[in-house]
Fold this protein.
Amino acid sequence: MIVGYKIDIMKLSMNTVAWVSCICLLSCSKSDKPAGQSVREQIQNKDWKVSALTITPAYNGSTDYYHNTMLPCERDNIYKFAISFSAFILDVGVQGCNIGDPISGTQEGIGTWNYDESQNLLHFDVAGSASFNYNMTLDEVEDDHFKGTTTEIISGITYTKKWEFHL
């Protein structure tokens, strides 16, 4: 009798540990976002680079816009969303696109940015450039990366671009 009693207590203890572990695991959150930090706070004052960019429908026969359309000198550009005056800064990366282009860290373009929380919309542009003016719906935002979607009309065709940025 006593032996059987000890086994039942062991089973009860193991079941309790298993249930508590499951509850703890299910209640954990995946997000690394510190409590109370807004989307604006997560993206501002960091050096972002485009790490992936796809386009649909296919453009020039490919949906991989990043590798098949963007030049290497464009892929290393740095995007900055500054706190002060909501300035957007596009810096030349390690290599310029043209002979004689400025060295790394030189501002290629300055514009503005803002985030509309009610629409989850990030707008950024380079002043005076009609081609560098984006309204991006944010799909995911973490401390070290964010993803967003834009639409663009090229030669009368509406394209959807999926962007990924990393530090």
Q: What stands out?
A: DSSP finds four helices and nine strands in the chain. The chain has one domain: 40-166. Residues 40-166 form a domain with the Lipocalin fold (CATH 2.40.128.540). The longest strand covers residues 49-59.
